[in-house]
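Ligand-bound model needed. 3-phosphoglyceric acid.
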Amino acid sequence: MADFAAMMGSVKVIPVLTIADAADAIPLAEALVRGSLPVLEVTFRTAAAQEAIRLIADNVPGAIVGGGTIPQPRHFGDAEKAGARFGVSPGTTAALVEAAKDSSLAYLPAAVTPGEVMTLQDAGYSFQKYFPAAAHGGIFGLNQLAGPIPGVKFCPTGGLDQSNAADYLACQNVFAVGGSWPAPNKLVEAKAWAEIEALAKVASAL
Ligand code: 3PG
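Prediction:
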């Protein structure tokens, strides 16, 4: 399994993409890379997801594409075959942790309660997704975890946007943030690539 934090490098914002039409994958990824957001999470919430990942991996130099919303172990294989570099899940099951061991992908599993966080820490994950962030106390919830569980860093997603992402990033236990706000579905459907590039530029300056 590859190291998630090492793969992120200095990138602090992960756009969460739900691509309905694979034909949008390349121009969307190109706009985000031009906007200095190269780490892209394509969620397995649409039938087009695997093809979208493949198209980005094969055609967009500079993009680091991963599969998101991974609910089942088989999705690691689907993402890997398509050329993904990482996988993200909205929660964690024992089956996903097992499957991640056999996968070449970097894995970002999710947790929100202290017990979930500690279970993942025991399994070797010091970088975790905090989802759904806003529903679990947001910045307050993250700060509450920082004292008793100092060894874990989070990527909160769910309810973040340009107005609150900087405050999340300022938390001592946050290494990155993610969300759909740099590439909202409405702009993707409208093929508004220049607007998405502009949103990405603003987000990447966080
Ligand atoms: C995710 O999958 O991480 C979230 O659905 C992103 O949530 P957002 O749309 O509130 O940014």
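The CA atoms of residues 89 and 140 lie 22 Å apart.
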